[in-house]
Amino acid sequence: MQTGYKRMSNLDNNVDGRPHLKTIYFKIGEAEEQVEFWSDATSEEVKECFRSATESDPSDILKLYNASNSLTNISPRLLANTAETRYTLKVVGAKQCLSSDGITPEINETLLSIEKRLLNLEKNIVLNSGDTPPAVWDMRAKVENLREKLESVEHMSWLGLYKDIDKKGSHSKTSSNTIHCCGTKKTKEKYQYSTQVFKKFEQLRSVELTEATRELLKKPTFDIWQWEDSEMLYLLQQMFVDLKLVERLYIELPVLQAFLYQVHVSYNYTPYHNFRHCFCVSQMMYGLIWLCNLQEKLDDIEIMTLLVSAICHDLDHPGYNNAYQVNAKTELALRYNDISPLENHHAAVAFEILSCEQSNIVKHLPHEDHKRFRSNTIK
Predict the structure, then answer these.
(1) pTM for the full model?
(2) Residues 263, 269, 270, 276: is their CA dihedral positive or negative?
(3) φ, ψ for residue 11 (rounded to 5)?
(4) Strand pairing category for 178-181 and 21-28
(5) Which of 6, 243, 310, 345 is the most exposed place for a label (fewest CB within 10 A)?
(6) How big is the chain by its Cα radius of gyration, in Å?
(7) What is the pLDDT of residue 233?
(8) Residue 16, Cβ neighbours under 10 Å: how many?
(9) Which residues are known to be catalytic?
């Protein structure tokens, strides 16, 4: 095995440093294929080579495995090999085609949306016919309306109620290079990057993960390193689906996707506490839920709390620990009186995201369940 890798390294060397043509041998299923690309090609160009060779859809998720069955990054730095040391290419997420009854993915998604709306309607009917009188719902709506008005009036800022938001209530510009989003300030570059990631994420809506990949995702040994940000968002969404939280807690997929997008925006470019770290911790929690069979021991609210807490546990982390915050007398330390400033901030940003109607994945929880979810998440 070491000899094989050494031979691949020799094939990959270039004496004069000029761009050179690489030939990569791989197999997909029983078919043996090969692609060629220049060493100075972009990662997207290399991936397009593999898509063309396998006639894959642009939204399909492709993963490459080496001889040790370990994930390998598809990039210009991919080591050249020989026909005897082929990589293995797998389509781990493929675009859904017409079903046997002729229903397209778009129509199927619409039907699912209608079904969810019917479930929500049934839930509201049950609630209204139970112990909660209509007057309470009317009062709650009035309180929410009053809160929105207070938050939109700048001269109320001395009460701590004013939020710097635009008419849509999602994000607003605070300077020429800064955007205010869910209680945090992000650079235009970070916001634009997250927007690009979300567009790719949206393209994966018609993709269905293979059963093998879904099973791997449930294991603590899942390899988190060879997945793009858009794919990690898709895998996080899949966790909610496979735990049946979407179905049982009446979470609309567009709302879940908006929530995950805001989470991505809220993670900073730090060496460690970044979005990949968020996915790493969340996937480990997801794996432990399945490994320990926690669905048999905890209810849906508690499972939801574990997953959301893992996803949000380092939101807007600045890259410096609590000791630094306190000693440097930072804004966070002053705001939270030196008491776990980072943990308090992470939780605050999480519930800032959940306070927006478009990204509130717990808006259909009954009042007592919502209180329990919030209390346990903060803890």
Answers:
(1) 0.68
(2) positive
(3) -65, -30
(4) unpaired
(5) 6
(6) 24
(7) 96
(8) 5
(9) 273
